[in-house]
Design brief:
- The protein is α/β, with parallel strands linked by helices and 421 residues long.
- It folds into two domains: 2-134, no CATH class; 136-421, Rossmann fold (3-Layer(aba) Sandwich).
- It contains eight helices and 13 strands.
- It has helices at 2-56, 65-76, 153-167, 198-207, 216-221, 345-367, 382-388, 404-418, and strands at 93-99, 103-112, 125-134, 138-145, 177-183, 187-194, 242-249, 255-262, 265-272, 290-291, 322-323, 370-377, 395-398.
- The strands form three sheets. The protein has a six-stranded mixed sheet with strand order 6-5-4-7-12-13, with helices on both faces. A four-stranded antiparallel sheet has the order 10-9-8-11.
- The longest helix is centred in the first third of the chain and has 55 residues, at 2-56.
- It starts with a helix and ends with a helix.
Length: 421
């Protein structure tokens, strides 16, 4: 009987010892699992960051993108990092390869060294991670103010700044597309959206001449036209081109493009004011309308509306001009077909419409996926620019024009960072 009890006690001791070994194994694996998770997370960060850095430099003729990927990954996850193996097949290693023409894939491997799990014979845990980054194609439109208030030093500084912006895209101009539209009273497509743009766009910038009002409304509207952004309606999200608009102005909108009728003839023209649409500036409506194609006046009195009705009591008996925009945006206090609208109501309404219609076009662009940067110089209206840009952190102000170059270059750098995913 005593012998049997001794055998049972011995069996219990053996079972307990085995159970303790199993429990220690699970505890060891549990503790080491946390370390392995950290190693894999850090390895993933390293391959992702190196793939992104390489993709940003795919078209850089001065840098080997794949070599850069390997070096960047090794800097972020060197041999022995987090107690990983330092030699042999279990050592840290990275391989970078080009997938197609616009993707970089970086494969990383490391051997995590267990601490407690070595008790049960586990000496190394192989860990791997893959990072892939793609350089996305881009379309950039510049919308630059060349109104009369820019004459002199500010205009020269703007040209220098805009040309320095282009230098950041010198290495990708065979793939990416950039274009330029400028505005005063009239709007000019100085360089339609296209590739190989650096030299011709710099020439177009140098050729810009300053004169006229601030018709930013028509400039924004033309961003959806044949010289502006590519229409991406129906394009799958993973194949869409990134589109950026960089807008510069030194003042408030002072005019807009519309359809007008005078003496039976319909005109596509610009209505604008004599001053800067600032509160209390006492501006007046111009005594005629301007052609959309150039800074010349049509000799048409703009006051009143009503299909060109002759009114002897209004403007010395001149025929009034029909403003079709008044059908949807009438002057406060006047019917849409009023025949004699004087200043200041008409002046103030033109200013309001110039901003309202411009912001409407900006919203349409943003709804189509365009990211808008806004740059203001001097007395540019902060509220207007804040509504114009895609977000508050995309608005920049330059109290003086000598600060423009730094702003344009900063925006170029930001756009380049956004071109990789």
């Amino acid at each position: 009987m005593k012998a049997l009890k001794k055998q049972e006690a011995g069996s219990i001791l053996i079972a307990a010892a085995l159970l303790i070994v199993v429990l220690i194994s699970f505890v060891a694996l549990g503790l080491d699992a946390g370390l392995w998770f950290v190693v894999r997370a850090e390895l993933s960060k390293a391959v992702d960051a190196s793939a992104l850095e390489a993709a940003k430099n795919l078209s850089n003729p001065h840098v080997g993108a794949l070599t850069l990927a390997g070096e960047f990954a090794a800097e972020n996850f060197p041999d022995g990092y987090l107690a990983t193996s330092t030699s042999g097949s279990g050592g840290v290693g990275f391989t970078a390869q080009l997938v197609g023409t616009d993707r970089v894939q970086v494969d990383g491997r490391a051997g995590a060294t267990p601490i407690l799990a070595q008790v049960v014979g586990v000496s190394r845990i192989p860990i791997s991670s893959v990072g892939v980054a793609q350089k996305r194609p881009v379309e950039i439109m510049m919308l630059l103010d060349r109104s009369r208030s820019m004459i002199g030093g500010p205009f020269a500084d703007l040209k220098t700044a805009a040309k320095s912006f282009l230098d950041f895209f010198q290495d990708t101009q065979t793939q990416d597309k950039v274009g330029l539209i400028s505005f005063a009273t009239s709007v000019i497509a100085d360089r339609p959206l296209g590739t190989n743009y650096v030299t011709p766009m710099k020439a177009a910038i140098d050729a810009m001449e300053s004169d006229g009002g601030t018709n930013i409304e028509d400039g924004l509207d033309q961003m959806d036209g044949p010289n502006g952004f590519t229409n991406q309606n129906g394009v799958p999200s993973d194949r869409r081109v990134q589109q950026f608009l960089v807008v510069f102005t030194d003042g408030r909108p002072t005019g807009f493009r519309g359809t007008f009728k005078n003496k039976g003839k319909v005109y596509d023209a610009v209505a604008c004011v004599t001053q800067n649409c600032e509160e209390g500036d006492g501006g007046e409506t111009y005594n005629n309308l301007c052609e959309t194609s150039q800074e010349t006046w049509l000799g048409i009195d703009p006051r009143g509306t009503g299909d060109g009705i002759h009114n002897a009591t209004c403007n010395s008996g001149k025929a009034s001009t029909r403003w079709y925009i008044f059908d949807t945006h009438p002057v406060p206090g006047y019917p849409a077909n009023a025949t004699c609208i004087q200043d200041p109501p008409l002046y103030e309404h033109i200013c309001d419409l110039a901003s309202t219609l411009a912001l409407q076009h900006a919203q349409e662009l943003k709804a189509e996926g365009v990211t808008i940067y806004a740059i203001g110089l001097g007395k540019a209206n902060s509220q207007f620019l804040g509504q114009l840009a895609s977000s508050p952190n995309l608005v920049y102000y330059a109290p003086t024009s000598d600060q423009l170059q730094a702003i344009f270059q900063r925006i170029a750098q930001e756009i380049k960072l956004r071109l990789v995913r």
